[in-house]
Amino acid sequence: MDVNLVPWIVLAASFVALGFAFYFFKSVMQESEGTDTMKEIASHVRKGAMAYLKQQYRIVVIVFIVLCAFFAILAFFNLQNPWVPFAFLTGGFFSGLAGFIGMKTATFASARTANAASKSLNRGLKVAFRSGAVMGLTVVGLALLDIALWYLVLDYFVAATGAQKAVYITTTMLTFGMGASTQALFARVGGGIYTKAADVGADLVGKVEAGIPEDDPRNPATIADNVGDNVGDVAGMGADLYESYCGSILATAALGAAAFMAAPEMQMKAVFAPMLIAAIGVVLSVLGIFLVRTTDNASAKQLLGALGRGVNTSSILIIPVTFLVLWALGITNWVGISFSVIIGLVAGVVIGQATEYFTSHSFRPTQKVAESGQTGPATVIISGLGLGMLSTAIPVATIALAIILSFLSAIHFDVANMMSAGNISLGLYGIGIAAVGMLSTLGITLATDAYGPIADNAGGNAEMSGLGPEVRKRTDALDALGNTTAATGKGFAIGSAALTALALMASYLEEIKIALQHAGNETLSFAQDSLMLFSNGLREIEVGAATVIDLINYYNVSVMNPKVLVGVFIGSMMAFVFCGLTMNAVGRAAQSMVEEVRRQFREIKGILTGEAQPDYARCVEISTKGAQKEMMIPSILAIVAPIVTGLIFGVAGVMGLLVGGLGAGFVLAIFMANAGGAWDNAKKYVEEGNLGGKGSDLHKATVVGDTVGDPFKDTSGPSLNILIKLMSMVAIVTAGLTAALSLL
Predict the structure, then answer these.
(1) Could you give the count of Cα atoms lying within 13 Å of 61 in the half-sphere of its Cβ?
(2) What pLDDT, on the 0 to 100 scale, is given for residue 207?
């Protein structure tokens, strides 16, 4: 295969993804929104979501201008690549655009899904899922478009030649992930605070105090709750996975460029391999989307099977295609690297299944959480916390196994020499391409995730519009399926974040090397009395020839180095401080919402009897203002921490920070997502008529558990994925500053 064609193949794949996204959007828009009441409710949600995004983007633009100016100053003083400010802006723009398109589609789709469900379950499923597919295909389409265009531009303008040119291009492209990460964090944190402030207020006052059903039009917070599903679970998730998808491809390309510097022809094949796998994944995702359909009287298991048919078909087909693509490229050890891709794919499936087992009310763990409500809300919370902690075992073991196996597969299982300089570079490339494998069919896996909030909003629209019990039964079935896919999607997002962050960590050292060269440093050297030697057997080595091991030794990245240990502690602390800030932010915003809902029930006479309409707009305004105010400190902290750590403790401190953040953040994210998912589905298990059903004391106990779990699973937990990756991206972008200036 002519490797020069690969960027154009990737560009073509992006057009295929965006073309089918537009096709699915048009097919959804051809559906009717239903009655005038359904249209009015959908309009309220749409206006609220757009008002929130406009306000958020105003703040994000200011942050981006400040950061872009900072990067421009670094470039001016030769501490940064001059392309970085532009790459940073495009990454943020495309990430925000992906979230905007997905959310816009979701707000158009909810009423149409409810109306389609009034005709048949299959029609409702198709509308909701194809709306989710717009999100999935838009994310992968814009990501591949960004990657292909940047490669073609840099390939034309960069003056470097030979193997050094590929390293320069890939490390430059990697920095646009900083823009994507920054935008994703604001989207996730702000959206998460918004949606959970509304959700907690609606549940505590509406369900527990007033005793009215979920999504009841008498609840003033119900529109804000539905808006929150879109800004948090659609726009936020889309921006999150856009960043993971780009990060995994670009980090792997950068690692490939570094691993094969001695063989320029093989180097370009290693750079293009992750891009080509992602491009093929687009086609297979589209195929899988067309396979999703069901019968009108399908059970929950059959509905899950309908989605599984599409996802599993895409995942299975990517396996032989990966072997074929890497063989056609002629890459070294194409069989082993293909197995690395498959290991990543299988790891994603295992984490998703483990998440489903611990969070679905079809299985005993969540049912036990519901049963613990017989002795009150305290035992529901204790039981959910215990479940969340136990649920970390399988995902952590899976990721650990995936790291080792993907590393060994890439080096022919040469265990005896696995830590040699050459094998470490190849092994890290194997880990990076495993992350690409996990995300290779993101087009359809994200579609199943975005489907969840669309189905949830459809159920809310059906309830508020007073549609018949048969329609509500169908939307409830679609909603229940959405809860499972959302929980599975969160596990998938966390797993992909862990592998991507590990690849980014390895890329950080390559970026340090580029930064040293950019600053005019030609050699690295140990003191004459030092016992340390570089990989060439000498005490001095050219920067361009330095391996990962050489850089680790030069900067003394060792657990016995106090700078590394301090960094590990700071990184671990960051995960908990970040969660504490976001949890408290939800608490404060929810308090304002609870007070407002109580005020309306008290002062607007006739709400509970249905004679007066609540002031929905006021609740939307409270959530919007609360989210914008509260998202700033956690988001800025995530950007500042790696810069300050680097300025004080240098490269060794930053490596410790990234290790600590990855280790603590990954486990904490799984714990919070699964505990929150279990509390949510324990409540739904009771609402289906089990253990006393709706309105019982046990039901109220599970509602309290669900309220505690809301910020766990929809704010703090998912935001940790981005924190892990953003700290790595900030470290990469400011590598020149860290290499040039550090106190210790």
Answers:
(1) 6
(2) 73
Q: Are 83 and 172 in contact (CB under 8 A)?
A: yes
**Identity at 312, one-letter amino acid code:** N
Distance between CA atoms of residues 20 and 141, nearest Å: 10
689-694: long-range contacts, CB 8 A cutoff, minimum separation 24: 690/370, 691/370, 691/371, 691/373, 691/374, 694/213
* pLDDT at 498 (0 to 100): 87
Tell me the whole-structure pTM to 2 decimals.
Answer: 0.91
The whole-angstrom separation of Cα 443 and Cα 364 is 31
Whether the per-residue pLDDT at 300 is higher than 70: the answer is: no
Q: Which two tokens stand for residue 300?
A: 């929950």
What does 641-658 look like in DSSP terms, one character per residue?
A: HHHHHHHHHHHHHHHHHH
Q: Do residues 620 and 530 lie in contact, with contact meaning Cβ atoms separated by under 8 Å? A: no
The residue to which tokens 């072997």 are assigned: 323
Q: Using CA atoms, how far apart are residues 138 and 133, in angstroms rounded to an integer?
A: 8
Query: How many Å apart are CA 172 and CA 154, to the nearest integer?
Result: 9
Q: Which helix (H) or strand (E) holds 541?
A: strand 540-542
Q: Is 610 left (phi over 0), alpha (psi -120 to 50) or beta?
A: left
For 130-150, what is the mean pLDDT? Answer: 94
| Gap between the Cα atoms of 490 and 677, Å rounded | 10
Distance of CA 59 to the CA centre of its chain: 21
* Residues 441, 442, 444, 448, CA torsion sign: positive
- What Å distances lie between residue 513 and 167, 258, 264, 542, CA to CA? 10, 10, 18, 10
d(CA 263, CA 267): 6
Q: Cβ atoms within 10 A of the Cβ of 597, count? A: 28
The whole-number average pLDDT for the span 115-138 is 90
CA-wise closest residue to 546 among 558, 559, 533, 557? 533
Q: Which two structure tokens, joined as six digits, stand for 119?
A: 């005709």
For 440-469, how does the pLDDT look when each residue is reduced to its tens digit (9 = 90+)? 999 998 888 888 888 888 888 888 888 888
CA torsion sign for 91, 92, 98, 99 is positive
What sign does the CA torsion over 579, 582, 584, 587 have?
A: negative
H or E element at residue 542? strand 540-542
Closest CA to 177 of 73, 270, 269, 248: 248
Distances (CA, A) of 346 to 120, 298, 498, 518: 34, 28, 15, 40
Q: What is the pLDDT of residues 23-39, one digit of tens each?
A: 999 999 999 998 898 99
Would you list the DSSP string of 60-117? HHHHHHHHHHHHHHHHHTTSS-TTHHHHHHHHHHHHHHHHHHHHHHHHHHHHHHHHHH
Indicate the length of the chain as a whole number. Answer: 744
Identify the H or E element spanning 524.
Answer: strand 523-525
In the structure, what pLDDT confidence band is assigned to residue 548 with cuts at 50, 70 and 90? confident
Backbone φ and ψ of 260, nearest 5°:
-115, 30
With a pLDDT cut of 70, the percent of the chain lying above it is: 98
pLDDT of residue 470: 84
Distance CA 683, CA 443 (A): 31
- Alpha-carbon radius of gyration of the chain: 25
Contacts of 328 (CB under 8 A, 6+ apart): 1
- Alpha-carbon distance of 89 to 146, in angstroms, equals 11
Are 281 and 318 in contact, with CB atoms under 8 Å apart? yes
